[in-house]
Sequence to fold (912 residues):
Amino acid sequence: MSELVSRIHIQCRVNGEPRHAETFPMARLLDVLREELRLTGTKEGCGEGECGACSILLNGAIVNSCLIPAIEADGADIRTIEGIASGDQLNAVQKAFLECGGAQCGICTPGMVIAATALLERHPHPNDAEIREGLAGNLCRCTGYQKIFAAVVRACELSTEKKPVSR
Amino acid sequence: MEEKFFGHSVIRKEGREKVTGRARYVDDLTFPGMLHGVTVRSSVPRGRIRGIRFGETIPWHEFTVVTAADIPGQNEIALIEHDQPCLAAESINHPEEAIVLLAHPDRYLLEEARRAVQIDVEPLPAVFSIEDSLAKRAVIFGEDNVFKSYHMEKGDVDAAWAQADVIVEGEYRTGAQEQLYIETQGMISVANPAEGVTVWGSLQCPYYVHKALMPLFGLPADKIRVIQAETGGGFGGKEEYPSMIAAHAALLAWKSGKPVKIIYDRAEDMVATTKRHPSRTRHRTGVTRDGKLVAMDIDFVIDGGAYATLSSVVLSRGTIHAAGPYSCPNVRVHSQAVATNAPPHGAFRGFGAPQSIFALERHMDQVARTLNLTPEEFRRRNFIRQGQTTATGQLIHENVNFDALLDRAFRESDYHAKRERFARENPGATIKRGIGFASFMHGAGFTGSGEVYLASVVDVEATREGNVRVLAASTEIGQGTNTVFSQIAADALGISYDRIEIAQPDTGAVPNSGPTVASRTSMVVGNLVQTAALAIKKTLLDSGLLCDACTEDEFVRACRKYIETRGPLRSRAQYEAPPGLFWDDKKYSGDAYGTYAWAVYVAEVAVDTVTFEARVTDFVAVQEIGKVIHPVLAAGQIEGGVAQAIGMALYENVVWRDGRMANGQMTNYIMPTAADIPPIRVFFEEHPYLFGPHGAKGIGELPMDGPQPAIINAIENATGICVRQIPATPEVLMEAMAQKAAALV
Fold:
């Protein structure tokens, strides 16, 4: 990148931990995560916000990290695929993906798990149209999506089994 | 053998790494001191290189620069023919031809440098279509632009026309299709004269890359090592092109003395790497008035692009599948793969069969209509049965029952009731609905004597921990190789699934079990895994350390004891052809495949007559694939293939401009999303195949063959328009509807 632009210091919380990085203000957040913070679970599929492989949660909202300039991450709360499981304990979506065959080659899977997790946070019991809509920003070339839909439905069941009623 | 894991949907072997983001793909790997590499490509489709200029604004002394002159061995990507250079030295034959390679630690500076290299080219006339190539508008390969042709004949077609009451002709076309694995291609190499060349990468066939690197560097087999990283989808797209990227990364590493990583971005991956061959098929079909096929004359041409690569083999499969699962006494298929000045077209799931099957299954509906028969009645009168022969003269030994597959597909899709209902409701409706089907087959494994030549090998070894490791070059690319091999080995040994380890495909450590292509991994290589695993057990039984009905603990103890007292416990299995197979490569006749998967697919569509958009609204896939190894993985293969085929049928349009893909982005090359794919209902009929593990046949490519004609047949049912090309984009449907309207005036 041009020497005329100087690096900036950004601080943010990533998966609950305070992190900081020296980077160019317009560097892609995707590259900061993968290269500076070595969180390589977030993938690049297209670099133009079409495929969703680089999906992360930025202040709770799902975004394509290839479209987010690093400067926007300053002070932000970020969740990546590495922060979805609690230690060795997979979350309901991850368990359901394993059980239902929602992951094949696995390259869209981190983004898909993030999207499904975000969907279930918005709609704990989504109907078919809401599932399709919720995952339409994440492309998968292996599964034909059927097993991913099944995994989302199964994840709802697993979540319900765990905490029957919560008010 | 007890089937404790076979037939059950165990958890994918490497699934946990994938759902947690811990799986390591090539772009997730870094090496100390690693440089990034980029490729400078041609800007014209055909010409002669006059010179290379390096712009003045770049500090070139910081860069590693590689041209053809730096290649230590032969400047070629070895595959079948020897025509494709690794780096163009004098002539350019397509607009994405690699000419110069650059490496530098800073990726941003590297991009500026790439733009600062000017290739000075004297342009030459080029050809961009099958027609121009056949007409020799310019001769760009050999004397006639033909990479390969086949002539396959059964009976006497010329004499048979006299028996035909009706002759129906038709021409059908399919476009290029991008594999569009979500992980773009990439490689990392460490290479120097002392240690030789090592590459890590996203690939399907480690030994293809190995074969390509040997002559390029003039090094012996043991000085080249190819290791597969976790691979984010292949679909054929990572069959041959990875050899090119591996070669480029290795040349930069060799010259710089540092590790070099090349990762294509999406645009480069889409425009430069291989795609499905565009095709043109012409049918001339003679039938009797009561609907019996008497002669099929098929002319099949595929566009191979600029170099021969795998086109001859793709053409072969397309040729053999061109006459479909029908019994016809007289069949002639003449086929050609021709050269154009586009990047070489290559392997893509189905490998030529989806192209020729699209034409046939569209044409079968046209013949039925001409005869005033329903599409199913015409097919029923001609379905191949046990004891009859295919177009290659292969005698069908298995009890194939297409009537039953068709009955089940119609029942599951409610075909007849829907056909009636749509006929009633469509008149006057803006959105017209239709239902259509295709019946087809897919040969499993390499064609003809291919498997015999491959002579694939698998090793199985016990470890001191009492685990058993499978060593094969067959790659996990999402389809489930690791899981299926583990199921097969665990059942053969009578131990648990978790005790099976799968060695990372690494040419320095695993034998050559052949390429991961052609729906052969489960059926052919899986059978070798079983044989080798059984040999381990036999060794333990013969040694007296194990009794036949043992517990897992006893097995573990026996392995440990064997290794401690007698040394390594390892076994090897090598492919042997099933008895009675005969193939004549000159006449192109005989047993083309050991077996076939058979299928009937039904598609339901809704066509908007205002926007000219077609959507698939329901899909039923009924197939016979031998025994199902893993129900979830098997259904996943079918669903994924159907989705890819829906893309090929309706959405995925490669726009060509002078041999270059003009829409090499995911924003304008449209693959199906979660919102576009209908429910896909998958049903298996299971008839065990004697020579597959537990009776399994190949499955991976089958679902790519049938959806396209089923969908277009459904569009014809909905609208009455006869579409003869795919993708059937709104533009294509608008044109066809306008033609139909004009014809009615």
Q: What stands out?
A: The radius of gyration of chain B is 26 Å. Chain B touches chain A through 57 residues (CB under 8 Å).
